[in-house]
Amino acid sequence: MLLGDTCTRGCRFCAVKTSNKPPPPDALEPLKTAVAVASWGVDYVVLTSVDRDDIADGGSGHFAETVRALKELKPGILVECLTSDFRGDLGAVASLANSGLDVYAHNIETVRSLQRLVRDPRAGYDQSLSVLKHAKASKAGMVTKSSIMLGLGETDEEVKQTMADLRAIDVDIVTLGQYLQV
């Protein structure tokens, strides 16, 4: 997990600690992460982070720097980044999509009707769709991925509609799961 352990949002499903002013990210984290991952001998890695609304680009540059460092140290590695919505900043999305990234993941989290109940008010269904659509359009061949949590009160029809909405913007991979707070 990049960018520290403290999130600037307060989604109701999540157990990560929150603060409006978390500590600044470690400037050496991209290189340290790349060195560590390269030493593991893996061929695929998923990088994720907390939301960092306190950083101008939401942390997208930090992600991109980490991807570039990884690709330099281990050119054949496949890198997936599970990102925040970067507050809907499509420039930040494009920057990360063009960093050498292989899979751009951003979770829609839940069906449209439950967004305000489940997610922080700064996140939203349409904003998530916009991020995923822009990631796909930013780089030819970009694989996009999203996830839906189940068991929050959604109906089967709402899940099908969410999947249809994701498919309509050419999201390649959708996972379904549950998230239980500790």
Sequence-ordered SSE layout with sheet pairings:
Layout: H1 29-40, E1 44-48, H2 60-73, E2 78-82, H3 90-97, E3 103-105, H4 115-118, H5 125-138, E4 143-149, H6 156-168, E5 173-177
Parallel strand pairs: 1-2, 2-3, 3-4, 4-5
Helix content: 25-40%
- Tally the helices: 6
Task: List the uncertain runs.
Answer: none
Q: What is the helix/strand order?
A: HEHEHEHHEHE
Distance between the termini: 18 Å
Number of strands: 5
Approximately how much beta-strand content do the residues carry? 5-15%
Rg of Cα set = 16 Å
Protein structure class: alpha/beta
What overall geometry do the principal axes of the alpha carbons give?
globular
Main sheet: strands, sense, barrel: 5 strands, parallel
- Strand arrangement in the largest pleated sheet: 1-2-3-4-5
Q: Roughly what is the average pLDDT, rounded to an integer?
A: 94
Describe the protein.
By secondary structure, this protein is of the alpha/beta class. It is 36% helix and 14% strand. The chain has helices spanning 29-40, 60-73, 90-97, 115-118, 125-138, 156-168; strands spanning 44-48, 78-82, 103-105, 143-149, 173-177. The chain has a five-stranded parallel beta sheet with strand order 1-2-3-4-5. Helix 3 links the parallel strand 2 (78-82) and strand 3. The longest helix is centred in the middle third of the chain and has 14 residues, at 60-73. The model has no long low-confidence stretch (mean pLDDT 94).
